[in-house]
Amino acid sequence: MKQVKFYNGQLMPQLGLGVFRVENDNTAKDAVKHAIISGYRSIDAALVYGNEEMVGKGIAEGIAAAGIQREDLFITSKLWLDDFGYNQVVQGYEQSITNLGLDYLDLYLMHWPGTNSTLMVETWQGMEALYQTKKVRNIGVSNFNIEHLETLKAQTAIKPVINQVEFHPYLTQATLRDYLMQEDIRMESWSPLMNGEILQDEVVNTIAQQLGKSAAQIIIRWNIEHGVVTIPKSVTPTRIEENLDVFNFELSEEQMTALDKLNQDKRIGPNPVAFNG
């Protein structure tokens, strides 16, 4: 599995399994277990998804079935807006690791910036304090714009290692991507397949036919070649396997450019500037 390196020297798999909108039942457990058996080493969870308990069971069963150790996995969860505030970060974190049945997280993210910049900064300071206790290996953010990151930069001591945002060929976020590169903050894409919408695109399918790959594999590979960490979601065993099978081919410069040109600045999720849960 290809990995990316954070500015603090820690490594993260570039491809993982997302579990957004997966039921908190055997669907989540079996998807996570199958992903780990298939070779995934990164699982992206969140408290607000409401499925951490069964994701945790899938992690435990996957570790046992694959014959690996907890340390071989990279597990992410996220602090929801309800737990924002310096003194509330720990309770949000403890709730997630209890749900997941773990004793630490590899990465903990602020799920959204919220609309109160003072509260955002105080919450990040709580994240910094949590990081200093070694209870979490890395801290980062999700859905932050440049302005949010600049505010943190001016008022806090530790910068995020990663920013998880909406990113796909219809929303390429080139300005944000350039900024993150300059700041040595990794970029990660959630919902890279646009809930399946991007898989219908004619350009994507033409490239898929040229290379003998699926449309999903083309989009995931496009993420990889942009240096972006990506976490496609699936609960179907064959698709979980297919989404991982993207390291044996490359996209040409022309194909990458064609995909980049699909940008419409189109979001399928909320705009981070106005979203407050």
Automatic annotation (TrEMBL):
Binding site for substrate: 111
Alphabetical keyword list: NADP, Oxidoreductase
Site residues by UniProt (Lowers pKa of active site Tyr): 78
Span of domain NADP-dependent oxidoreductase: 15-263
Pfam families per record: Aldo_ket_red
Entries under Gene3D superfamilies matching the protein: NADP-dependent oxidoreductase domain
Family statement: Belongs to the aldo/keto reductase family.
Protein name, per record: Aldo keto reductase
Gene: yvgN_2
